[in-house]
Amino acid sequence: MNAGxxxxxxxxxxxxxxxxxxxxxxxxxxxPHMRLHxxxxxxxLAAAAWVKLPPEGWLWVISAVAAVWVTELLNxxxxxxxxxxxxxxxxxxxIAKDAAAGAVLAAxxxxxxxxxxxxxxxxxxxxxxx
Length: 130
Fold this sequence. Notes:
This protein is 83% helix and 0% strand. The chain is mainly α.
């Protein structure tokens, strides 16, 4: 702890945080779907702010955005690990990649459902006065 009573990060913690950030930046740079998810998140968060979504609505929206991002990052990790372990075509490699992509699809369906349920009515009301 420092003189103010607050704990400082040690070098290992800072390095872990840096590596995690590098992983996110790698996915942003190299995965087109990650950039698509970033754009969608910006639009959804802007819409939530526009309709002045209440705090409980924000929790649902943020959980949906996080679910998609987390699964996309894990999908990227699985794809790279499988490519390293099995550079040639192999049925198990295909299954691993397909399952990881399926997780992203499931999270995306969840996010669309949350958006429709939580954001749909207030956005509709703002656009069409209903």
